[in-house]
Amino acid sequence: MLNFIDARCQLGRRGIVREGEPVTKSDILELMDRCSIEKAIAYHAMAKEGDMKAGNDLLLQETEGDERFIRQWCAMPSTFGEFMGAEELAEQMKKHHVSSIRLFPKTHGYSVKPYAMGKFMDVMAQCHVPVFLTYAECGSEDNLYSLLSSYPEVNFIISDASYRENRKLFPLMEQCKNLLLGTGNFVVHGGVKLICDYFGAERMIFDTGLPMGSATAAVALICYAEISEEEKQLIAHGNIERLLADVKL
Amino acid sequence: MDCTKSIFAGKPVDFEVIDVHVHYGDAGTYQLCGSEAEGIVHTMGRLGMDLCCCCGNSAASDWYYINENVAKGMDRYPDKLKGYVVVNPFYEDLDPAFWFERSPGFIGLKVLACVQGDLPLDHPRYHRFYEYADRHNLPVLVHTWIAREVNEMFRMAQKYPNARFICAHSALTNRPAKEALIEGMKICDNVVADTAISEIYDGALEWIADKIGTDRLVYGSDFITFECSHILGRVAMSKLTDDDKEKIFSRNAKQWLKL
């Protein structure tokens, strides 16, 4: 039976909760159990929606002693000392066993162009820290291409590409070998097989987007994909385990 | 039934599955894969789907071409595929009767107003199609997304009580749409809602089922506009009872579509 590691999970109180949507950590754990999701890479809602530093601290509290969650911090380049500098970020991540970062450039209002990301991305590259962001947060395919092609040594996990993005996604994946696709909302008919056939199963990472995304839908998408068992294992957990094992903080 | 075990083995779930909301043929605006009969039937076989009720894709384009395309697919797979006639409000020469004579596979009509000039669903140009469905007691699959559309559909359901409406997407888009669906269901008993939606969260299906009842839900995936396995998994691995799942997957659809 497939075991999954979820590469996109949000903990904490968020501003908007839809009807029937999971809210608490125990709601999320129930779904993880139902869907055979062993662990989840989690960031905190406050770090996205409000105070980034406070949200990252809340994540540490929320996940203290809990082996089901792999810590992820939200981050951004420091402007006028607003957020910690890249070297300090790396030190703090090491200290608190945080192994990846998530960017929200659109939500947090900064550019992903190299002139703005500069030293921040250089440090992430040196430390082999995987960088996560959603498709919509990049603003445009050109922005995404600029970011990915400027830092080819950084592995970017781009999630939430919808079923309408194939024509934009394909040339990006072809040009940028450091683009790994989060599977959560990639619901192109036969899309998982398509990516495996063209680019290889190594280029996909399982994620759910819990609690706003569906874990049951996400696991069914992989389990029913017309690909080999070995490819499913890579997508479900193998690829993300490889990336996290390579982190050098 | 242990649906999770079946899904994790990549095997069909132990339910008969009738998908009331399937698209057929390519769309211009984005890439589709396996969108013709062979691709659909192949996926049905892999996932254990018994019957797909299809409407031609690109409802904004040539209505004759897309309906004929579906008819040809049903000619090839009469036991696997049924069809809805996609209507277009701008063509007076579109006669639903022609299509029901063309193929016995056609079982109803499809209205997708948002890509047809965004006319209201209760615009007078659509009335002759609803009248036809009313006269022949046919299902009408209606694309709804926002509360305005849900309300327009219910106005038509009230006006044409012998037509059997399927509210596509169960108004799962936002709260006002859901509220419109819940209120409308109290007034009209000739409406059911389907489960199709691309971006779904866990708990949504259980919530709407609690509000409108599982007798009023039918399984729809929107396949091949997008994948269907994730919707199948979403229903099969929900917290609903097996009896409720069976109703949603096939029992309600058999009754509603007179299969």
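qc> The CA atoms of residues 91 and 177 of chain A lie 28 Å apart.
qc> done
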